[in-house]
Description:
The structure holds two protein chains of two kinds.
Chain A: E1 18-19, H1 21-24, E2 31-35, H2 39-44, E3 51-52, H3 58-68, E4 74-78, H4 85-95, E5 102-105, H5 108-114
Parallel strand pairs in A: 1-5, 2-3, 2-4, 4-5
Chain B: H1 2-15, E1 20-22, E2 26-31, E3 37-46, E4 52-59, E5 64-68, E6 72-73, E7 78-86, E8 92-102, E9 107-116, E10 120-123, E11 126-129, E12 138-144, E13 152-157, E14 162-170, E15 174-181, E16 188-196, E17 205-212
Parallel strand pairs in B: 2-9, 11-17
Antiparallel strand pairs in B: 1-3, 3-7, 4-6, 4-8, 5-7, 8-9, 10-12, 12-15, 13-16, 14-15, 16-17
Amino acid sequence: MGLWQLKTRKEAALEPGEVRAREAVQWATDKVWVDARSRSRFEHRNIPGAVLLNSEEWDELVPKFLDAWGPDKAVIVYGDRQGDSAQTIAFRLREELKIGNVWVLHGGFDEWSRQ
Amino acid sequence: MIRSLVLVLASSLVAAHADLTWDKPIQEFHAVPEDKAITGRYAFKNTGTTPISIKRITTSCGCTSAKLDKKTYAPGESGEIEVKFVFGGRRGAQRKMVSVTSTEKQEWRLDLRCWIQEPLTVSPSLVFWKVGSQHEGKVVKLTAAPGQSVNIRGVKSSNPMFKTTVDTVEPGRQYAVTVTPNDTTQVVSAELVIDTDGPQEKPRNYKVFARVK
Lengths: 115, 213
């Protein structure tokens, strides 16, 4: 890859593979919301219907995620506003399970809460 | 007169421009747990016409640190951000983001992707069929990490609705497990456990998920 210029936040707030909450909720396709935060934060508050899947409990939680997942569903992963939990889980879903149609919720749970 | 004014205005606009151009803002690494850490070097150049100052570098994880030699770079000057990712107990595909912000509030994102390999890499770890689709076999590739020899002792399925066969591509190095559902007329799931003899001191099992959905 040659030189690659990144844009400023003002010009392009969304990173590749990210989606805004207000856009995601309007998708006609079925969705699986994946909470990539810690179990304690998930249990405190989460997006209704979300399944927990984080790095700490990856092996134990994948089967439950797969129960909710389907080949025609979009997967939307969210974490905290700061941190890389959502990016990492989305990456693992794409790379290890080879699941397509995986998105990261821009701004994470905080942005969803503000909707 | 007007032409001169336009030229002056244009040149002042160009002069106000400051920007960083990155050589490889996305970097990929393959490592084994014993490496413990990897370091990415993100080279950049000030391709603008005014000096640029880095105000802040933020990493997305406490496991990742970033180092920069100095803060301000003149036009045409190059620099490098050193990003170190310490694995800790992390395994598998990992992604770490680094955010670089200038005093002019420009922001760039650096992306570090690292595959921390187990003694055996399983790809993919999910095989699935849509309900009603043909129930042809799907292949899971097993590849030993460089310098390691791992043999497959067997594969156990938690559900007899899935059959498995193991083919040796390269003894100790590469295998192919073919997974086939008996039928795909209904939703069914299984966990397949791949039993290996490596590493010698503590042989590992690996899971593959099979689903008809």
